[in-house]
């Protein structure tokens, strides 16, 4: 298991440029060391600055803000992001992700909390702590060394660099305990806190169900399926846009099949990956169906899951979190062979997962119409036991307890 060590001249030059850029950026961090560390300051970001107030860092922030309001803690949260228009609680300080902003705030914060890699060239000081939450519980698509020869050398270098900075990686399963070693190229401490972003699924389902139906003017008794195709592009050899003109799911048939099998009135929430949604703000879906609603610009996937009733994806790990709370999950992978050729062998044989798999619309509709709840529940329970998923809705509390303890006792 390794990365692709073969590189042509263009890749060699690209890597050289990235290394020089990282070296130069590193000087900004050293210059900012004239400022002291503020151990009450916590810097957060999601999806390399492209995300908003979402994923696990959001729920860690929510627990911190709760304790701040109760007078138990006095932390300051700074959030690095690309789009300053994104909405955050008033107590969170939004900072544009530029080199000098990043260097100053990361150099002077006591703690970093992120769900993706930090910035190549970043420097961490003693008595600073970097907590990596990652953005999955169980993965379908391979990451890190599991991509084998399809793992680019530059991606390996960035991953290895980042992992040397990390103090703690959070885990919500025994499967991740083992996978993170090669997946994140990480040999440091992994702590079994559970996954902060799963807390909302266990603690706020009824609240979110009511909230989303009111916001989108959906009947109170109506049901919702999320369609969440995963991200394509980046380090893959080709990119694939996902929009309603190119998506091959037949949404009208999908709604009809859901209503025939499960009853009630159904709506479809289209949720693109944050790194793709950021580029598709003007997504047009009118005319496809008045019950297909684009929620891609919402920064937090898990509150949408909490409000919903079923999940449809190709390779998104969020389907496991949906299944964890009993929602029917379905796989629609119309490009399975091409995706594996681009990304590498998946972590699981798709047909061995608890979720019915379809490669075309006819099979997808058949899977929905013949969905067996009892058999599905048995498969999900067996999968949870096999992978050691553990979530109890208290992961965020454990992470903030950790942050507090670091401020009191130190580690380095």
Report on this structure.
This protein is of the alpha/beta class and 412 residues long. 40% of the residues lie in helices and 14% in strands. The protein has helices at 9-31, 55-69, 99-108, 153-165, 174-183, 199-203, 205-215, 251-262, 274-277, 301-307, 318-324, 336-343, 361-369, 373-387, 395-409; strands at residues 38-45, 76-81, 92-96, 109-114, 129-132, 168-170, 189-191, 223-228, 266-270, 292-294, 310-313, 329-332, 357-358. The strands form two sheets. A seven-stranded parallel beta sheet has the order 3-2-1-4-5-6-7, sandwiched between helices. Strands 10-9-8-11-12-13 form a six-stranded parallel beta sheet, sandwiched between helices. Helix 2 packs across helix 15. Residues 234-245 and 279-283 have low confidence and may be disordered.
Summarize the structure.
With 412 residues, this protein is an alpha/beta fold.
Secondary structure layout plus pairing:
Blueprint: H1 9-31, E1 38-45, H2 55-69, E2 76-81, E3 92-96, H3 99-108, E4 109-114, E5 129-132, H4 153-165, E6 168-170, H5 174-183, E7 189-191, H6 199-203, H7 205-215, E8 223-228, H8 251-262, E9 266-270, H9 274-277, E10 292-294, H10 301-307, E11 310-313, H11 318-324, E12 329-332, H12 336-343, E13 357-358, H13 361-369, H14 373-387, H15 395-409
Parallel strand pairs: 1-2, 1-4, 2-3, 4-5, 5-6, 6-7, 8-9, 8-11, 9-10, 11-12, 12-13
Helix pairs in contact: 1-3, 2-15, 7-10, 8-13
């Amino acid at each position: 298991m390794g990365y692709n060590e073969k590189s042509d001249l263009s890749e060699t030059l690209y890597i050289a440029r990235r290394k020089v850029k990282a070296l130069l950026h590193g000087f900004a961090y050293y210059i900012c060391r004239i400022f002291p560390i503020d151990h009450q300051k916590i810097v957060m970001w999601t999806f390399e600055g492209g995300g908003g107030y979402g994923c696990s860092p959001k729920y860690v922030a929510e627990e911190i803000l709760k304790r701040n309001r109760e007078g138990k803690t006095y932390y300051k949260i700074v959030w690095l992001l690309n789009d300053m228009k994104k909405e955050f609680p008033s107590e969170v300080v939004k900072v544009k992700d530029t080199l000098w902003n990043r260097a100053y705030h990361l150099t002077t914060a006591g703690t970093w909390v992120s769900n993706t890699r930090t910035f190549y060239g970043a420097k961490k000081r003693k008595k600073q702590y970097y907590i990596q939450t990652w953005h999955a519980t169980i993965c379908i698509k391979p990451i890190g060394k599991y991509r084998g020869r399809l793992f680019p050398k530059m991606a390996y270098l960035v991953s290895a660099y980042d992992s040397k900075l990390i103090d703690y990686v959070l885990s919500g399963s025994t499967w991740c305990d083992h996978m993170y070693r090669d997946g994140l190229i990480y040999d440091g401490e992994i702590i079994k806190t559970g996954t902060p972003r799963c807390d909302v699924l266990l603690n706020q389902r009824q609240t979110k169900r009511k909230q989303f139906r009111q916001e989108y003017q959906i009947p109170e008794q109506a049901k919702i399926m999320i369609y969440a195709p995963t991200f394509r592009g980046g380090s893959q050899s080709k990119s694939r846009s996902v929009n309603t003109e190119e998506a091959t799911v037949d949404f009208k048939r999908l709604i009809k099949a859901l209503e025939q099998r499960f009853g009630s009135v159904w709506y479809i929430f289209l949720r693109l990956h944050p790194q793709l949604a950021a580029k598709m703000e003007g997504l047009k879906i009118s005319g496809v169906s008045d019950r297909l609603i684009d929620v891609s610009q919402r920064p937090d996937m898990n509150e949408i899951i909490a409000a919903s009733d079923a999940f449809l994806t190709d390779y998104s790990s969020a389907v496991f979190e949906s299944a964890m709370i009993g929602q029917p999950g379905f796989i629609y992978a119309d490009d399975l062979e091409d995706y594996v050729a681009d990304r590498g062998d998946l972590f699981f044989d798709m047909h061995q997962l608890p979720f019915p798999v379809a490669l075309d619309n006819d099979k997808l509709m058949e899977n929905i119409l013949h969905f067996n709840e009892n058999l599905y529940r048995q498969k999900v329970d067996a999968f949870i036991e096999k992978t050691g998923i553990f979530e109890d809705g208290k992961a965020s509390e454990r992470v903030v307890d950790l942050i507090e303890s670091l401020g009191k006792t130190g580690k380095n």
